[in-house]
From TrEMBL:
Every UBC core domain range: 6-159
This protein's name: UBC core domain-containing protein
Listed Pfam families: UQ_con
InterPro entries: Ub_conjugating_enzyme, UBC, UBQ-conjugating_enzyme/RWD
Lineage of the species this protein comes from: Eukaryota, Viridiplantae, Streptophyta, Embryophyta, Tracheophyta
SMART domains named among the record's database cross-references: UBCc
Length: 191
């Protein structure tokens, strides 16, 4: 069987498995072509923000592009260009070890999507892909004793970090996914 046939066979099995059992809130389906046929090599996905995190309540579109030699090599996983996260390149490509050096052919699509969901709230500063986001994270997490840069999806998330209402807030930057706030609070719950 040609390598493309192996890839398509594996992806057909992944599709069958996904339809039977997949994590709640996630969406993953092969791309539908204009003629109505299905392209197993490109999947359109949606990752829900994990409960209890600043990403909760959000749904984040992601495309998985599988190479002809899959599962020997991993798919390219991409958010829309401009997605603001330390481990996502400006092009939207995700930088995650299981999609690179730690790839194993046994890794399932479910494991990939859950791994990316986890990465959203647990960035890896040892492997930055987005220079601007990394510089903000590295330089100004703590500006002074009470003022910090806070990356959040919604304003209410800031209130979970402070014991009392913050005394000063200012939006530093925003896109359709998140806000970067400068927040002054003198009784932070977490460091």
């Amino acid at each position: 069987m040609a390598s493309g046939g192996i890839a398509r066979g594996r992806l057909a099995e992944e599709r069958k498995s996904w339809r039977k059992n997949h994590p709640h809130g996630f969406v993953a389906k092969p791309e539908t072509m204009p003629d109505g046929s299905v392209n197993l090599m490109v999947w359109k996905c949606v990752i829900p923000g994990k409960e209890g995190t600043d990403w909760e309540g959000g749904y984040f579109p992601l495309t998985l592009e599988f190479p002809e030699d899959y599962p020997s090599n991993p798919p390219v996983c991409k958010f829309p260009a401009g997605f603001f996260h330390m481990n996502v390149y400006p092009t939207g490509a995700v930088c995650l070890s299981i999609l690179g050096s730690a790839w194993k052919p046994s890794i399932s699509m479910t494991q990939i999507l859950v791994g990316i969901q986890d990465l959203l709230d647990n960035p890896n500063p040892a492997s930055p892909a987005h220079h601007e986001c990394y510089q903000l994270y590295k330089k100004v997490l703590i500006i002074s004793s009470g003022t910090r840069i806070v990356f959040v999806r919604r304003r209410r998330s800031i209130l979970h970090l402070c014991s009392h209402e913050p005394t000063a807030r200012k939006i530093l930057a925003a896109d359709q996914y998140s806000f970067i706030w400068v927040v002054t609070c003198h009784d932070w719950k977490i460091l």
